[in-house]
Amino acid sequence: MSQRKLDNLGVSAFCESMAMMIQAGIQTDEAIALLGQNHAHVTGGVLETAIDKMKEKVEIGESLSSAMRESEIFPEYALQMIAAGESAGRLEDVLFRLSRYYADQKTISEKLKNAVTYPAAMLVLIIAVLAVMLTMVLPAFSDVYDNLTGSLSSSTYSYIHWAYGFCWVALVVMVILAVLLIGGLWLWNRGEKKKVEGLLRKIPVCRDILDTMGMFRFTSALETFLASGEMQDIAVIDSIAMTDCAPVEEKLKRCVSRMEEGHSIAQAAYDEELFEPVYGRMLLAGERSGSMENVLSRLTGLLEENCGSMVDHLVGIVDPLLSGVLMVTVGLSLLSVMLPLIGMMNAVG
Which pTM was predicted? Predict the structure, then answer.
């Protein structure tokens, strides 16, 4: 059975704890031992189970990245970054950057989760309300009018059938949306992420979100690789695999081709319109002033904020739309069944 991986928040906490202890002058093996003592009262956790194994490996002379790899609980990206940081003697900086990176990933994941959870809850509510309308409310009014008129085919009351039709159409549409949502989540959990993203890319706002997330992962990885001492061209190539976004990878490969012709990453990114023009000029200015890492850090933060804003915007579109469908469906249905009653009361009066 495969080892369960540490989640983003756990990786962030581990990296931050290790970075602070190394910054304080504590040796790696002692730092891991201290982490083990701090978690000694916890049993059965992913990290707690792996700490003893990591401690043994470090004590016999293995590197931190090697010990982490053998624990089988850390993502490949973190392992590569830490190995590069150890080689360049910048482990502390890399650990701090990884801590921030995985904390940011956690934030974005929570936003995406919330973006799916509320619409899913609204779909369930709408389906439940429509089911009640079709099985209880509309039949009750139909029976009353049928007893009064002898037949609902009468022109006075026949438009109650429009209420049935409208509710059925709305119910079918909502059920289809719910099936698509459940199917997408099922494919995602089964590792069919690419198929789900391919479908989402047909929606412009979702496509923009996915591209921005890919760029966020790239700039964060590039910043960390450069901080670990990698050469710029190697850092760019290694960062491409971290984007997990095919369209962004294609742009980055074109940038690499330009770099092979003698252009810098900033100039190649600007020529290929990898970033928005204002971001591209920021990168050019950072490269010329020798502050590339600081600019990349700023760009990573801006891309994260932009991604969060787009997710919020998407939720802001979907939520009122579903709420509107619910209100319009219920309102028109009730209006359809109440109008005959109003007509009857006026006739009696």
Answer: 0.71
